[in-house]
Structure formats: structure tokens, C-alpha cells
């Protein structure tokens, strides 16, 4: 295999002030802990960078391929609602790009590779636990079919780093993304009032992620970019809600322009359904609670739109009207995707135009019952998929999940009536179609917090096997199998993880 040659589009396409060329600090004694072979194949990573010392040296930043011109990227952001004009890669470094299987470039970034000019008070390092956490959860998201950054490698650094909870082993994650452009990248230049750089950034975002818009005349292509981002973001968040994912830190600097889930810190998957579920230790006020995520997407897009206004045309009033009109469509767009997602979770209809209000109501009623009973979000839908709704035996098993009351029974009867086409609202759904749709919409296995924590604890003690086993079973999250069995169990009360940490 020819040695991979990195592209360095960050040096050619981005405004100059968007990056600082910078070398990784290096680590004392790197050891490769995990390498993602499938992703390595996708990126045609040569064998020498997959195992042993040479691989550890590359993915820790100790020895870089000749073609890499690494840089730290600048960005700003709104953190918990407050503007922060200066953030940036304080512990990450963009190595360059390799082509993916679709021929499009992917960024390869080291996270935890040392201080940069953006580090502020931080040490530029990452601890092993959070590195493995991002590795496991981002790969799980990918296997769930949700756009996300990926994990190519995890390397231990041989260094002990200081964290609030005490000393921890250091590590470096190699992250792969369609790009590392964030909403906050736009905010960085908006704060500086640099319209020329904003235009270059917007054109680059279009060229990289929305090439179909590139030929639109100026200024038409900038509202088109906002419109595309509104659509992309509302779809992404709907996907999170489908699997019970809570990002935990939806600050605008963690929102990706490429439409990928970005920055896995104190993120979590919900076990028992609770619409207001907050697990992130940094989210004291519940701003980023499970059911707030759709609304926050709108808020974040509004901050992005404010940055793009100067590109919409010379007349500010007209620009604002235009942006407001586009943003005003978000709630409906989000609702449409959300309702279709809920209907698919029930096996009713896969296509948005086919969703009736009655179907959406049926979904909402089920969620209300589940919230009341504290039903497991993942297992309830899967159990519903596996049992025949007209079967009286179903009532007993579902009662355990939905609560035994009359409301639960009434819901099951209405669901059965809907499937049989007896409710007069929509055509019947065959059992085969229902199950097929439910089985590809509702996962069997998610990275449950207690499982993730247990695997990370073992890894910190030197045993990587539980992490490996978790990664394996999360590769096929929609497939019920004996191997998946133990990973489908909700936590026992003593296993319950009450808060997740970013550990930075
Ligand atoms: P995050 O909370 O991971 O989204 O990071 C927010 C900001 O803090 C970003 O600018 C990071 O680069 C920076 N940051 C987080 N951890 C560290 C660290 N250990 N050293 C330097 N900068 C950091
Ligand atoms: Mg971040």
C-alpha cells in the first residue's frame, strides 16, 4: 500500500486567522491501546500506522508523517448561553486530511496532544477515561447510523496528569471528522467584525459540505447555507432523541457545520425514560436536558444566523427579515422530523408525508406512560417490536414496562387498532412491515452509562478487555443476539450512574 499522503486544506481554504500552525508537544512513552481497523481501511491507513511503536508514535503526535502540517483551530462560542469570544483547540491539533471511501476528505485530529496557543489555563492533555469514553460512544453512534465524528486510535501517553478528582493516566485520541468547522468558528470572525474572513469561511463550508450550493450567486448562497444547516441540525437532533442520547454540552462551539455529533464530553444515553433527564455534571440548570435539545438546536442556529447576516446583502433590515423567516421554519421542520421518528419507532410509517396527527399522538401517549412508569427507553420499544400487539400475553409483559394501569391497557388496544387499520385514520400496517421498521429504528444495545463506566474503570486499572467487548457488541446495535444480552440490562439501583463528567 502506498503511504498515505495527508492533504492540508486547513492551510489553503480557511481564513488565515482561523488556525495557528503548531506541533504536538509529544508524550513520554506512547502505547497504542486501540486502533479502529474498519475506519483504518476506509481511510487506507498503512499497516505500519496500525500496530506497534510506529503507530503509537504517529497517533500520540511523537512522530508525524512528512505530509502533515498540523494546526490548532480558532473558534469562539456561546457556553451555557454566554458569549465567549476566544476559545479554540486548547488540547487538540488538526494533523491534516485523508480521503474517505467516498473520496471526500476527512480531518484527522489529535486530542490531548499538548498545549497550544489556545490552551489558556489548561494543560493541553486528555485523561484516559474521557478518551476511551469518546472512542466508545462515538463509535456506538456511528453504528447506530447517526452522523458523528469517529475514533481511529487511542494511545496512552505514559504520563500522569492532574485532574480535579486526582492524578489520572494521560491519553491521546485520534478523532476523524468531515471537518472541524463549528458554529463557533463563524462566531470567532463575527466577534472580530471580519466580514472578509466570514465570507471565506462560509464559502469554504459550502465547498466542503454543501457543494450543490457553490454555484448559487452571491449573496443567495449564504441564506441557502443557513437553510441547509437548519435542516441538517434538526435531523441530527431528531436522531439523538430516537436513541435516547443526551449530548450534555450543546454549546455553539460543540455544534458541527458538517452535521456530525461533535465533542463527546459528559454525554450520556438515558436508561429510564424521563423527558427532562440531565446527566451532565456541568449542566446544573438543565439547559441541555434530553427534551430541550431540539429547542437548543434552534437557539444555536439563531446565534449562527446572526454571524451570517453581513453576508446576506447590504440592507440590514432585509437581511434580518430573511434570517428570521428561515429560522421561523425550524420548529415545524423539527416537529415534522420528530413525529416521523416517533411513528417509525412504533413501526407505523417511515415516510414523513405519511405521518398523521393520530400517529404522532399515539407516540406521545406512549411516552407519557413511559415517563410515568419510568420505563426503559430502549427496551420498551424493542419489546413492543417483538410481541404481537393483539396477543393478550402482550398485555402482561407490556404492563411491566408501561405500568399495569388502565391507561397502559387502553394504549395497547389503540395501538393494535391502529395497526389493524380499525381506527379509520390510516391503512393497516402488516406485522412484517411493523417489525422490520421497528427493528431498524429501535436499537437493542446502547452504550449504557453503567457499562461504559465499568469498562473505563477496568481500563484505568490496565484491563482493556471490557472496553473491547463493549465496542464489539455496539458494532451491531440493532441485532438481538446472545452476546448482546447482558448489555441490554438496565442498571441495578446500585449501578446507576447519576452524573457524567467531561474530565477535562
Ligand atoms: P470542551 O469543554 O471540551 O468543549 O472545551 C472547551 C474549551 O476548553 C476548548 O477551547 C478546549 O480546547 C479547552 N480545553 C478543554 N480542556 C482543555 C485542556 N485540558 N487544556 C487546554 N484546553 C482545554
Ligand atoms: Mg468542545
Describe the structure concisely for a colleague.
The chain is 42% helix and 13% strand. By secondary structure, the protein is α+β, with helices and mostly antiparallel strands. Among the domains are: 9-180, no CATH class; 348-384 and 386-441, no CATH class; 449-495, no CATH class.
Kindly provide the radius of gyration, computed on alpha-carbon positions and rounded to a whole number of angstroms: 23 Å
- Give the ligands present: adenosine monophosphate, magnesium ion
**Helix fraction by DSSP (H/I, runs of at least 4):** 40-55%
Q: Helix and strand string, N-terminal first?
A: HEEHHEEEEEEHEEHHHEEHHHHHHHHHH
Low-confidence stretches: none
How many DSSP-defined strands? Answer: 12
Q: Give the DSSP E fraction (strand runs of 2 or more residues).
A: 5-15%
Q: Identify the overall geometry.
A: globular
Arithmetic mean pLDDT = 95
N→C terminal distance: 38 Å
Structural class: alpha+beta
Annotation field: number of helices: 17
Largest sheet: 6 strands, antiparallel
Task: Jot down its keywords.
17 helices, binds adenosine monophosphate, alpha+beta, binds magnesium ion, 13% strand, two-stranded antiparallel ribbon, six-stranded antiparallel beta sheet, 504 residues
